[in-house]
UniProtKB/TrEMBL annotation:
<keyword id="KW-1003">Cell membrane</keyword>
<dbReference type="InterPro" id="IPR050833">
    <property type="entry name" value="Poly_Biosynth_Transport"/>
</dbReference>
<feature type="transmembrane region" description="Helical">
    <location>
        <begin position="316"/>
        <end position="336"/>
    </location>
</feature>
<feature type="transmembrane region" description="Helical">
    <location>
        <begin position="379"/>
        <end position="398"/>
    </location>
</feature>
<feature type="transmembrane region" description="Helical">
    <location>
        <begin position="96"/>
        <end position="120"/>
    </location>
</feature>
<feature type="transmembrane region" description="Helical">
    <location>
        <begin position="404"/>
        <end position="431"/>
    </location>
</feature>
<dbReference type="GO" id="GO:0005886">
    <property type="term" value="C:plasma membrane"/>
</dbReference>
<dbReference type="Pfam" id="PF13440">
    <property type="entry name" value="Polysacc_synt_3"/>
</dbReference>
<feature type="transmembrane region" description="Helical">
    <location>
        <begin position="132"/>
        <end position="155"/>
    </location>
</feature>
<keyword id="KW-1133">Transmembrane helix</keyword>
<feature type="transmembrane region" description="Helical">
    <location>
        <begin position="21"/>
        <end position="38"/>
    </location>
</feature>
<feature type="transmembrane region" description="Helical">
    <location>
        <begin position="348"/>
        <end position="367"/>
    </location>
</feature>
<keyword id="KW-0472">Membrane</keyword>
<protein>
    <recommendedName>
        <fullName>Polysaccharide biosynthesis protein</fullName>
    </recommendedName>
</protein>
<keyword id="KW-0812">Transmembrane</keyword>
<feature type="transmembrane region" description="Helical">
    <location>
        <begin position="191"/>
        <end position="212"/>
    </location>
</feature>
Amino acid sequence: MAVKNWFNDGILRSIVRKAGQLASTKLLGGIIGLLGLVCTGRGLSADLFGTVMLIHAYALGASALTKSQSWQMIIRYGAPALTQGNTLPARLAIRFACAVDAVAGIIGMIGAILALFFFGTKFGVRQEHIPLAIAYCTLIPTMSCATPAGVLRLLDRFDLLSIQQIATPLMRSFGAVTAWTLGLGMPAYLLSWYIADLAGDLVLWAMAFIVLDHHRMLDAMRPSLFDAPRRLPKVWSFIWTTNLNTTLAVGKEPISNVIVGGMLGPAAVGVYKIATSVINSATKPATLMEKGFYPEIMRLDPHSTRPWKLALKTGFLAGCIGLAVALAIMLLGHPVVSLFGKKYRESASLLIMMAPALVITLSAFPMESLLYMSGRPKALFYSHIVGTGAYIAALVYMTRHFGLYGAGAAFIVGPLLLSLCSLIPTLYCFFNRRSIILPTPVQLAADDAEMEEEALAES
């Protein structure tokens, strides 16, 4: 009865509703994407399939290392001000996010291409496939952009976000099915993945432009590296810290694929990638709660207990979903993996070995948002350093000594240590919540007022 009464909380209902919107299409996208993955796996040899996965993972890893996660900055500075009817901080944050994303994407692309020239074969990419990997790295600038997603979350357009989630897996599966039907080679499969990723990113940008135009804020898409730092307090510090946090968090999966490929070869990457892809697809419906959770708590008073209680409720619900998914994986892992063919049957054992990590990861997700709300992103950064460092060390050691099964066992180490390390500063912030400093809204000076009037006139 107590859990049932939780849903009398309108904010929790809003979080669950938004997660449901995203989950409905994410689940559909996951099923459609799984079709594309199955066709790619069946249409290519284990070695070539692993090469496609490795090139894609390399580009994802490079974008993760430079991705600014500017959407969190947009929410932190834009959401509190918008509740007061002040659109200027949101405009400044979006302009700054556009500029940061552009710079980060270009740097990531250049760095990834240079690294392939000198170390491509050490990453597991064969010499004859390096030109294809270099061409694929031109996706990194769009992969690195978090601005359009931040705009849609800020303006509460989760319905559009849910629709966009189908674009990439639909295009990817269409391309993979076409290549499989026509008996095309590996470059055709890689091209289908390239086109799908690019199309999905362009759809997201188009939606952000349309929504901003509707809110008479289209001028916010003019990139600027200088306006926001002069008017939004500590924005550079926030963007750098969140960038490092997300780089460590998001970069683990593609980097682990590269490590496994470098130590065990492309075929092993294919087996490992299938296991991690199925787990990631299974966790999407629950992890989508985080997308609605952070904007909602940024509109609440952190000095009260309300956002903290909300975190407990959402963490508990997500943990329950994680437990159900883990049990389902243990029961259905072998039938699902059998779709890829007998040559990938090792993936089923990896799936079962990795499944407990779902419960840890999903139940602990609110702590990241709470630390951002509390103005303690550095505490989260230190937690990520410990958790990621321990995971990478365990992955290298256990993969070297136990092969793929060692990599599967190491998969649990990272989330466990990260959750334990994040719990300490989260508890500290809760017991000292009266000392939390809220982000100061932009004060409209004379030049700011003129800027606001010009922006409205242009809109």
